[in-house]
Amino acid sequence: MKGVRTIDANLKTVQLTVDWEHIGVKSIARAGEQTVVEMGKGANSQSEDKGASPMETFLSSLGGCIIVFLAGLAEKRRLTINNIRIYIEGDYDPRGMSSSSSGIRPGFQQIRYQVVVDSPDNPEVIRKVIAYAVKACPIKDTIMQGTAVIETQLSQEPQMATIS
Predict the structure, then answer these.
(1) 142 DSSP assignment
(2) Does residue 32 sit within a domain?
(3) Residue 97 burial class via C-beta count within 10 angstroms: exposed 0-12, middle 13-18, buried 19 and up
(4) Which residues contact 55 (CB under 8 A, 6 or more apart)?
(5) Dist CA 132 CA 73 (whole Å)
(6) What is the secondary structure of 93-111 as a DSSP string?
(7) Is residue 22 part of a domain?
(8) What is the DSSP letter of 153?
């Protein structure tokens, strides 16, 4: 982005574009040519805006991140994993989305998750692998530690130097 300085040469940047698909509120996020996710009104919607809602996508990112680290670490340690399932739920007050003057936050007030691993291996070893995976998950870290979100000026042309 113009005027943004690099803080650390070791940082890597993840870049996406999110485009409105001209069908209600449907959008598609892409990394290059790869579709990352299609978003719409969500699983409980009867509309043509198919795709997970942005809030469902956010929660699924947490679960997916934990699974990536958990499955990868289990493979490195040669553990047998039959299945991994993560139950996630988040509470929000929809009134926060309808009026900025309501004083109610539009985001999640609380997120809860449970990691369930089916494995014949030692349960204590599995618990330690789960704990490490959760600690290593950058999505959870972003949620827990907070990250600055910088909005460049609104325009009709991209303002990020590396996006063409």
Answers:
(1) H
(2) no
(3) middle
(4) 42, 90, 92, 108
(5) 9
(6) -THHHH-GGG---SS-SEE
(7) no
(8) P
The whole-angstrom separation of Cα 108 and Cα 153 is 26
Domain count, the chain: 1
Token pair listed for 42 = 């969500």
- Radius of gyration of the chain from Cα atoms? 19
Write the pLDDT tens digit of every residue in 125-158.
999 999 999 999 999 999 999 888 888 776 666 6
Does residue 2 lie within any of the structural domains? Answer: no
Q: CA 84 to CA 117: how far, in whole Å?
A: 5
Return all residues near 22 (Cβ < 8 A) that are at least 6 apart.
none
Q: Which domain holds residue 121?
A: 53-145
Show Cβ contacts of residue 125 under 8 Å, excluding neighbours closer than 6 positions.
77, 79
3-state secondary structure of 27: strand
Q: What is the CATH number of the domain that holds 135?
A: 3.30.300.20
Query: For residue 91, with 0-12 CB atoms within 10 Å meaning exposed, 13-18 middle and 19 or more buried, which class applies?
Result: exposed
15 is a domain residue: no
The pTM assigned to this predicted structure is: 0.80
